[in-house]
């Protein structure tokens, strides 16, 4: 018999991060619940640790959920592509990870 007990899989920086990660877990078949979303306005009045958004999952799915979150941060995205800035090989301009073309000189990102 499976338990309905929930455990904390992750404490997020903000509501947007928590929602994104909860959706990531849901896409992998793990039911996730985000809590403390209504407490975000209390940041500053209450300690951050008391009001930070948390992602809760069923206890029996906890290890898998934590591993998926860990893998996301290790690889940078669910598809495994890195989420780091890159330097254009032509003009040496720093570009964000979402850019496939240098914003300054319009040269394509070099294959890594």
Protein described:
By secondary structure, this protein is of the alpha+beta class. It has 2 domains: 6-75, 2-Layer Sandwich (Alpha-Beta Plaits); 82-112, no CATH class. Helices cover 28% and strands 17% of the residues. It contains 3 helices and 5 strands. The strands form 2 sheets. Strands 1-3-2 form a 3-stranded antiparallel β-sheet, with helices on one face. A hairpin with a 6-residue loop joins β4 (86-87) and β5. The radius of gyration is 18 Å and the shape is elongated. The model has no long low-confidence stretch (mean pLDDT 81).
Concise synopsis of the structure shown:
This protein has 112 residues and is α+β, with helices and mostly antiparallel strands. It has helices spanning 15-27, 48-51, 62-75, and strands spanning 6-11, 32-35, 54-58, 86-87, 94-95.
Write the layout of secondary structure elements.
Layout: E1 6-11, H1 15-27, E2 32-35, H2 48-51, E3 54-58, H3 62-75, E4 86-87, E5 94-95
Antiparallel strand pairs: 1-3, 2-3, 4-5
Neighbour order of strands in the largest sheet:
1-3-2
Looking at the structure, the CATH topology of the largest domain is Alpha-Beta Plaits
Q: What's the architecture of the largest domain, going by CATH?
A: 2-Layer Sandwich
Radius of gyration computed on alpha carbons: 18 Å
- C-alpha end-to-end distance: 48 Å
Structural class: alpha+beta
Question: Order of helices and strands, N to C?
Answer: EHEHEHEE
Tally of alpha and pi helices: 3
Q: Give a short account of the largest sheet.
A: 3 strands, antiparallel
Strand proportion, as a percent range, falls in 15-25%
Mean residue pLDDT: 81
Helix content: 25-40%
Number of domain modules: 2
Morphology call: elongated
Number of E-type strands: 5
Unreliable stretches (pLDDT < 50, length at least 5) are: none
What is the name of the CATH class of the largest domain? Alpha Beta
């Amino acid at each position: 018999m499976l338990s309905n007990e929930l455990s904390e899989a992750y404490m997020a920086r903000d509501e947007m991060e928590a929602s994104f990660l909860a959706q990531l877990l849901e896409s992998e078949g793990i039911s996730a619940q985000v809590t403390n979303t209504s407490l975000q306005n209390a940041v500053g009045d209450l300690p951050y640790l008391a009001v930070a958004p948390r992602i809760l999952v069923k206890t029996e799915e906890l290890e898998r959920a934590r591993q998926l979150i860990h893998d996301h941060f290790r690889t940078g995205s669910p598809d495994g592509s890195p989420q780091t800035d890159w330097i254009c090989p032509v003009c040496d301009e720093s570009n964000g990870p979402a850019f496939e073309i240098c914003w300054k000189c319009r040269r394509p990102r070099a294959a890594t």
